[in-house]
Amino acid sequence: MRKFVTLFIALSFATLCMAKDVIIDQKDKTFIPTKVTVHVGDNIVFKNSDGFAHNAFSDNKNNEFDIGMQRPGEDISVKMKHVGIVEVECAIHPNMHLKIVVK
């Protein structure tokens, strides 16, 4: 049992060390890119390159988030915690959509 716990901790630590940041730009009222594939533990970094505020939120079970009002030039990071499809929208600009596939 002790070996199993040690192995589990080592693998969990290795996964965290391999996590990466994936940049999603918000420009011209569009998420760029509009679809990404990431792994559990990766961070989605929302970058606002427009001259006005944005928002990004998802109400998908297990990967719910809402970054709130994001000012121009601001970067906000969200960690993907569970496998699944995450549909993201902007509460300010309803035509902005992003699909995140979490493996």
Q: Find the CATH topology.
A: Immunoglobulin-like
**Helical residue percent?**
10-25%
Trace the largest sheet across and list its strands. Answer: 2-1-4-7
CATH homology-level superfamily: Cupredoxins -  blue copper proteins
Structural class: alpha/beta
The CATH architecture: Sandwich
Number of DSSP E strands:
9
General shape: elongated
Low-confidence spans: none
SSE string, helix = H, strand = E? HEEEEEEEEE
Mean pLDDT across all amino acids: 89
How many helical elements? 1
Specify the biggest β-sheet: 4 strands, mixed
Tally of discrete structural domains: 1
> What value does the Rg take, in angstroms?
16 Å
Distance between the termini: 28 Å
DSSP strand content: 35-45%
CATH class: Mainly Beta
Descriptive overview:
This protein is an alpha/beta fold and 103 residues long. It has a single domain, classed as Immunoglobulin-like, CATH 2.60.40. The chain is 16% helix and 40% strand. The strands form 3 sheets. Strands 2-1-4-7 form a 4-stranded mixed sheet, with no helix packed on it. A 3-stranded mixed sheet has the order 3-9-8, with no helix packed on it. Strands 5-6 form a two-stranded antiparallel ribbon. The longest helix has 16 residues, at 2-17. The protein is elongated, with a radius of gyration of 16 Å. The protein starts with a helix and ends with a strand. The mean pLDDT is 89.
